[in-house]
């Protein structure tokens, strides 16, 4: 075991916590709140492993902090810009979850379009025998064009799957991706106009906050299907509810919400919304691979002064030892 204290604020995946306690001195804390550090030796903490909000005030409360290892590829809850300004490394867990999240996206899309969850509930309620076959679905995937907002690691894994379904793919990013043949749109609105399935797998943060709004749903149109497997914060949820209720778009499939785990009642009451409780990467195997990557980043940092998966904001940081 290394003579290094790693703070674990709030809940962490069990496998990550177990490995950290074998490799380092694990210091648990109820939450990432500077007030809770009172009476503790904050200057002993050199690393954080977390799946919770780590803001600037908490970073500032830990004078010897060198690294924040985030559990999850989305790290919008960590103030990575502030960490970078203080030479503090931030890591996330990319790639190991791509295929799992893409599988979830395809399942969510099929459920949204062909209503399989509702059809199963119909069968289980005995309605098939009593009332006859489940009503024909208003939608089909056949003949649809798919637009991906956020053609990154996960977006490309989704695109590969949907290509095999025989569906044409287009996308919007800030910059075109080299080596893909999909049609690029330099605006989200332009993409929404060109497709009838819009899949959002873009990261959260200030730049994408409520970027999927009423104008985008108008552009997607009355046969449009909207899927969100990225971050709830990217969507104006009120506008989405209004668009679903008014038939501005046909249906939505959502794995993420703006105030998780709270899902607005209005969404729960809409028949054309298919809802999942943020399960994109939620298989035991994939979550364990993410947990391993959290710990492997910490080990690489404290043993070798490098990390495996830095976030872009801190990718250029050299090892700065304060120990
Ligand atoms: P990547 O960084 O590989 O991809 C993100 C893509 O979004 C890039 O292609 C980027 O292209 C594009 N993008 C970023 N900002 C903008 C912007 N302002 N406007 C337009 N395009 C933008 O990330 P991953 O594919 O690994 O993950 C994507 C997100 O998925 C994560 O951030 C996370 O929030 C979410 N996620 C959700 C999960 C779930 O359980 N539902 C599980 C895992 C991840 P460019 O830089 O050119 O703009």
Which properties best describe this structure?
323 residues, Rossmann fold, 2 domains, seven-stranded parallel beta sheet, five-stranded parallel beta sheet, 12 strands, 35% helix, binds NADPH dihydro-nicotinamide-adenine-dinucleotide phosphate, NADP, D-isomer_DH_NAD-bd, NAD binding, glyoxylate reductase (NADPH) activity, oxidoreductase
Number of helices: 12
Radius of gyration of CA atoms, rounded to a whole number: 22 Å
What multimeric state do the chains show?
Answer: single chain
Counted beta strands: 12
Total domain modules? 2
Please name the CATH architecture of the largest domain.
3-Layer(aba) Sandwich
* Each distinct ligand: NADPH dihydro-nicotinamide-adenine-dinucleotide phosphate
CATH H level, superfamily name of the largest domain: NAD(P)-binding Rossmann-like Domain
Poorly predicted ranges: none
Class by alpha and beta content: alpha/beta
* CATH structural class of the largest domain: Alpha Beta
């Amino acid at each position: 075991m290394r003579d290094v204290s790693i703070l674990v604020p709030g809940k962490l995946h069990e496998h990550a916590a177990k490995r950290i306690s074998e490799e380092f001195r694990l210091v648990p804390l109820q939450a990432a709140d500077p007030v809770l550090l009172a009476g503790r030796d904050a200057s002993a903490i050199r690393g954080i492993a977390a799946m919770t909000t780590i803001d600037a005030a908490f970073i500032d409360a830990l004078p010897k902090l060198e690294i924040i290892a985030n559990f999850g590829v989305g790290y919008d809850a960590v103030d990575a810009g502030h960490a970078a300004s203080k030479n503090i490394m931030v890591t996330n867990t990319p790639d190991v979850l791509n295929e799992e999240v893409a599988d979830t996206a395809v399942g969510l899309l099929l459920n949204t379009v062909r209503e399989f969850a509702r059809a199963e509930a119909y069968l289980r309620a005995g309605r098939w025998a009593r009332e006859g076959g489940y009503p024909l679905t208003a939608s089909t995937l056949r003949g649809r064009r798919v637009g991906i907002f956020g053609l990154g690691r996960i977006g490309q894994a989704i695109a590969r799957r949907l290509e095999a379904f025989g569906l044409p793919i287009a996308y919007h990013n800030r910059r075109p991706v080299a080596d893909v043949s999909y049609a690029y749109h330099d605006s989200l609105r332009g993409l929404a106009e060109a497709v009838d399935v819009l899949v959002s797998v873009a990261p959260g943060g200030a730049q994408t906050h409520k970027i999927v709004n009423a104008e985008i749903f108008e552009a997607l149109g009355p046969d449009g299907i909207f899927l969100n497997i990225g971050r709830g914060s990217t969507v104006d949820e009120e506008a989405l509810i209004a668009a679903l209720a008014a038939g501005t778009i046909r249906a939505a499939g959502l794995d993420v919400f703006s105030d998780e785990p709270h899902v607005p009642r209005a969404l729960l009451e809409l028949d054309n919304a298919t809802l999942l409780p943020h399960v994109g990467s939620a298989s035991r195997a994939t979550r364990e691979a993410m947990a391993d990557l959290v710990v492997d980043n910490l080990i690489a940092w404290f043993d070798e002064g490098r990390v495996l998966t830095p976030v872009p904001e801190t990718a250029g940081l050299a090892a700065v030892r304060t120990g």
